[in-house]
Write a structure and sequence with these properties.
The chain is α/β, with parallel strands linked by helices. Helix content is 38%, strand content 18%. A hairpin with a 5-residue loop joins strand 8 and strand 9.
Amino acid sequence: MQQPDDASRDESPSAVEARAAAYLLPTYAWTRFHPRDGRGARLVDAHGKAYWDLLAGIAVNALGYRHPALVRALRKEAGDLLHVSNLFYQPAQAELAERLVTLSGLSRAFFCNSGTEANEAALKFSRLLAPGKPGVVALENSFHGRTFGALSMTGNEPYRTPFEPLVPGVTFVPANDVAALRAAVTERTGAIFLEPIQGEGGIVPLSDAFLRAARERADAVGAALVFDEIQCGLGRTGFLFAFQRSGVVPDVVTLAKPLGGGLPLGAVLTGPRLEGLVRPGHHGTTLGGNPVACRLGLTVLDELVEGALVARVADVGPWFGRKLAALARRSPAIAEVRGCGLIWGIELDREAAPVQAKLLEKGFVVGTARKKVIRLLPPYVVPKAALAAFVLALEEALKEPVA
């Protein structure tokens, strides 16, 4: 791997931490980990220690680090226009829209900078489909973002309480409770927002029956069915789009995380029911869908589809799931394993954060969800050997004394 030559990258971890503490708003509970380099599914810290990355920047780095195709595309685009605004035509943006629409079977695309922005746009577009119907049905333990509209649909009280009152009219129901969903969707409901696999909620896949019921109720009352695929979409389930796994087609899909290859890029895909409803002035963004991010987005799609990375996820996912299931049978500390493809949650009988710290010491970067779930979102290029080594490391960590 190339060694960083920028002076700031060579700064000591303690100096970085001191500067962050002095000047950054403390919105994050930082982990004392200083990644400075990486290649493939490997990260290297400031001391030169290598780790297997099983978090991928929270599902962003699907192609891993320093992917040759992304590096080539970025170098090429760096010599062209970095920004022209959405007042003018951009070739890469139109091409990326065409690819996403063609691959998804939906009708139109809108580009923004993040998943939160995509969900805000989807909420507005839903109002156009169902005017005069302000009600929204979302799920308990859901996560759709931190701005006011997206936060209003996020079923996590600690995130919501400091900022209330939020946008009114949101009803939360338990995941996979079909009866509760049917009761909550009324003639006042304009949108149903669902993550096909809840991410921050603990990696909870929604059942096909629940998704079908959502489609039926949305059709019955004229509401928009919105699938938030920001974390679970773009190949992570072994399908390019998570909705393809169930066959339930939503009216709107929101995307982000891996789409920009590491640069900020979100997207909203809309289906036939919204055709002709969104007009100039209804929504916009200054930086969203800039030429560089869109060109990287095309490169990501090339690797996922033509490069067969989605097919690889579909192959590796069941194999890894069997490894995790076998570990769960051996280890009483594991309450449940949930997921598919390369999105997995391992629910423990204890707090997940200390186990996460032990795994970092053993050379594995993982995430957590809720309080007791180890969250795994590895790059699609992760070798099977790394996943097998992780299973052994987790087994060891769970046998060690609880701090």
